[in-house]
Amino acid sequence: MACTRNCVYRGEDAVRNGSQTSKDTVDAVKVLARICSDHWIASALNRSNLRTGRGNYWTKERVVSLRTYYEIPCYEAQRCEAEGWMNLTTAAKHVGISDRTLRLAIDRGEIEAEHPVSRGPWVLNRRALETEVAIQLVKRIRQGQRKPTISTTQQENFDFSTT
User: How many CB atoms lie within 10 A of CB 75?
Assistant: First the structure.
């Protein structure tokens, strides 16, 4: 198959020439497109040191091209709202707790969320905030009850040296 300088490699040629964007990056774009514009997706991919299949930095146009090729819908505020997608900050405001508290609950596995790229936004769905566990978490926080990560019986005492 002859190819000009501006040829776009796809399928077998892309794999053979190493120019296909990684599956992990494509999956990340699928998740990020729920809450981010193409410009923000490109920024998140670049901050996370992810590159195109050809090793280039991401631009809005390259994200559009990738989304078009893989038939990933672009971000639309109305669809985002209707489907219940939100970032960490919006989700925290939605349930009335701080970003940090919500992030810690996610880290403990109490609330489901996706973090598709290391230096990008967390992606949550309203349904994850409406589970019984999430409701109890918010209720506990609002009542001022702190639940330690490790129960006090499992915690060790520190012996501080006086020398």
Answer: 18
Q: Could you report the per-residue pLDDT of 75-115, keeping only the tens digit for each?
A: 999 999 999 999 999 999 999 999 999 999 999 999 999 99
Cα–Cα dist 52/30, whole Å: 15
Helices 23-32 & 38-47, crossing angle to 10 degrees? Answer: 140
Provide the whole-model pTM: 0.75
Assigned domain for 127 exists: yes
Residue 39 counted as domain residue: yes
Residue 87's CB is within 10 A of a number of other CB atoms, namely: 19
Rounded CA-CA distance 97/3 in Å is 55
CA–CA separation, 78 and 159 (whole Å): 57
